[in-house]
Amino acid sequence: MSTFHTLTVQDIIKETADAVSIVFSIPEHLKNDFSFDAGQYVTLKKEINGTEIRRAYSICSSPKSGFLKVAVKAVENGTFSTYATTKLQAGDTLDVHTPEGKFVLSSEANKNYIGFAAGSGITPVMSMVKEVLEKGVNASFTLIYGNKTEADTIFKNELDVLQHDFPNNFNLHYVYSRERIDGSKNGRIDESIANYYVKNLYKDISFESAFLCGPEEMIHSVSDILKSCGFDNDAILFELFTASVEEENTAQITEGNSEITVFLDDEETTFTMQQTDTILAASLRNDLDAPYSCQGGVCSSCLGKVTKGKAVMTKNSILTDSEVADGYVLACQAHPTTPKISIDFDDV
User: Fold this and answer.
1) Separation between Cα atoms, residue 162 and residue 25, nearest integer Å
2) Residue 243: CA atoms inside 13 Å, Cβ hemisphere, count?
3) Out of the domains of life, which is the source (predicted)?
């Protein structure tokens, strides 16, 4: 079910030359709706130049902070990110979806966690770090954080303060690809960097879980090292900020048509769509307010469950094999492959 609320921007914080944090005022009657777990995201919606734009941004405040904050980094030709970093002001309003996402951490006392983040991938991990440190009592978080330069490092000052305030609970390491700074690693977060921290510097620490957020190449490289160190698949959680453009499973998509029944907001709608079209695109063209955000298979806002028939995803980087086996699909990547298909957006 798609649930947006209009929220007022309380503050805009300049984090770097091309990144800002947006702090929202949450009315008392919406406090429960906007409660969240560390690592979740919200979808922001705004009409810009006559076009509705939706983008997903991870929450970087802690669940106990009492406020909702996201960070936005400008990207080349990015309609919303350019607007947010150059025009958005305190007092403006945005439509904000209630928190979503399964990339979450629920910290426990006496547990150790490790995170690898690159660039703006720090945003959900920042919330996790705060969650662990607020719990205290022997819980720890080790963060390896990669950027081009120190000036590009979102939350640099805030992270340094946390390290100073929690020297026994927070291990912080920077990796820079375009400059050398004493006390930091030079390069990108890859197998060698991950190997150094997991197999050498922290080889005597048993980590409960690992949280990875950044580009797909980094996710794969670090995951391989973690698995070689004995991490179970369930203990490695990741969220992509960029995915590869290479498509998969296109051979199963045909030129035929499918009769599709969509269950959305407690209503049932049936129409005919081309199998070369995605379920999300076809739903939107038939005036259904189907949930979505990135439309690139990176977030899970458009998650639905196929209850009849079959569909194939051209790209899947985030759903597990068991979720796919249970019928879950990313509607922005899903194409029907049977004459009739049903998808439920409500029961997910």
Assistant:
1) 24
2) 19
3) Bacteria
